[in-house]
Amino acid sequence: MSLKLIVTGATGTAGAEAVRQALVHPSVAQVTVLTRRALPSHVVPDAEGNPKLKVIQHSDFTSYPSTLLSQLAGHHAVLWDLGISSAGLNESDYEAITKDYPLAAAKAFATLGSADRKFVMCYLSGEGTDQRDGKARAMFGRVKGRAEKALALLPSEYPTLATYSFRPGGILPIMPTPEANFMQKVGNIAGPIIRPLFKTHFIDTPTLANGMIQAALKGASGTIEGWEGKGKVGNQGVFDNEEIKALADGTNPKWRKS
Fold first, then answer.
1. Is a pLDDT exceeding 80 seen at residue 205?
2. What is the reported pLDDT for 48?
3. End-to-end CA separation in angstroms for the chain
4. List of E strands, the chain
5. Would you state the pLDDT for residue 32?
6. What is the pTM of this model?
7. For residues 140 and 152, what is the distance between their CA atoms, to the nearest angstrom?
8. pLDDT digit string (tens) for 136-192?
9. Pairing between strand 202-204 and 28-35?
């Protein structure tokens, strides 16, 4: 089954690697990037010369007019890697980007799916998130928990949509990101040093990207074989760090209960 894939957040650490991995994946026929600005050369050196890649500049991630959706007709899934650090933001502003943007996109992209092949929304969340009210310690965990839950509920209203959420731990890039902030740069340096001590809490960007691509390829029925229950409401319904790794390499361990 070939896949036409949309990627958001392509200028960030996770999104940039998602684009690169999708471009070399044999089952991905086309990669369309939705971005506010031109794709930097560090993401793909010759974006205009790559026949598999299309870049659409889109400024408002709360609105998907028919002219845009017509350009996306025939696409099967989106890797939603668009996000921002919660540092310095109030909760309502952070929620607009972290929850409202992907919800608006999922509802619009549901029109691209069908009863035979649902459109797949793969949402990048993060470790420390909790869908239970009052359980997440940090603001980002509360907001992403609300986003995960809202996305998991959407298929009941939009039957041509399937949604899956992913909670990576520390993300280790294999290629530098010039736009990385100070803390990300510190993490890039320290990550490889402490990773051997805390393997279950780290993931490299190619593995993260390929785990999400596998969900996009295999999840169009609304369930993924061997991972039944993923995409449902609740903390058990998301892919955690180790499950993303397993999904990427094709193994199906019993996922632990939370």
1. yes
2. 85
3. 33
4. 3-8, 28-35, 53-57, 77-80, 119-124, 161-166, 170-172, 202-204
5. 98
6. 0.90
7. 18
8. 989 999 999 999 999 999 999 999 999 999 999 999 998 766 665 555 555 555 556
9. unpaired
- Judge whether residue 91 has pLDDT over 90: yes
What is the pairing mode between strands 170-172 and 119-124? unpaired
The type of residue at 104 is A
Amino acid at position 95, single letter: E
Residue for token pair 């061997």: 226
Q: How far is the C-alpha of 8 from the C-alpha of 36, rounded, in Å?
A: 10
Angle (deg, nearest 10), helices 139-157 and 101-109: 20
3-state helix, strand, coil split of the chain in percent (to 5) is 40, 15, 45
pLDDT tens sequence across 106-147: 999 999 999 999 999 999 999 999 999 989 989 999 999 999
Strand positions, DSSP E, 36-159 = 53-57, 77-80, 119-124
Q: Which residue has the tokens 């409202």?
A: 100
Q: In 10 A of CB 50, how many CB atoms? A: 14
Tell how strand 28-35 and strand 77-80 pair up.
unpaired
Distance separating alpha carbons of residues 140 and 123, to the nearest angstrom:
14
Task: For residues 19 and 97, give the distance between their C-alpha atoms in angstroms, rounded to a whole number.
Answer: 21
What is the DSSP-derived secondary structure letter of residue 80? E
